[in-house]
Amino acid sequence: MNNVNSFVEPRSAAYAWGLRVVALDDLVNDGSYPDRASDAILAARGALGEIVNVGHATEHNEPVYLVDFGSAVVGCFEEEIAPAPAGLLPETPEEAP
Q1: How far is 86 from 91, CA to CA, in rounded Å?
Q2: Which of 23, 35, 3, 17 is nearest to 79 (CA)?
Q3: 23 — phi, psi (to 5°)?
Q4: pLDDT-based confidence at 3, cuts 50/70/90?
Q5: First and final CA of the chain: distance in angstroms?
Q6: What backbone phi and psi angles, to 5 degrees, belong to 78?
Q7: Reported pTM
Q8: Domain with 28 in it
């Protein structure tokens, strides 16, 4: 029997699309990339990326961020990424060295 009162409101995302982030730890292939080894590092600790999409993991009731690290687009939880400090990445392509 379904209990209507058991509905849990999805947890809001702390970060938004377009935010530049840094990986807080090595992000390892969980099988999402079948052409790479199962323990391959997709983004090393300190890698810089940009959030390209925000979803929701219902089984964990938490946001999931698709982050483009250049070499791979990786699904990340909030505890795996942090906003990149200002000035760490060029703000526009024209500012890149």
Answers
A1: 9
A2: 23
A3: -75, 130
A4: low
A5: 61
A6: -60, -35
A7: 0.79
A8: 7-85
- Are the C-beta atoms of 68 and 35 separated by less than 8 Å? no
Decide if 95 is inside a domain: no
Q: In this structure, are residues 67 and 21 in contact, taking their beta carbons and an 8 Å threshold?
A: yes
The tally of domains found in the chain comes to: 1
Let me know if residue 58 belongs to a domain. Answer: yes
Q: Tell whether 39 is covered by a domain.
A: yes
**How far, in Å, CA of 44 to CA of 97, rounded?**
22
- Identify the three-state secondary structure at position 80: helix
CATH of the domain at 65: 2.30.30
Pair type for strands 62-68 and 73-76 = antiparallel
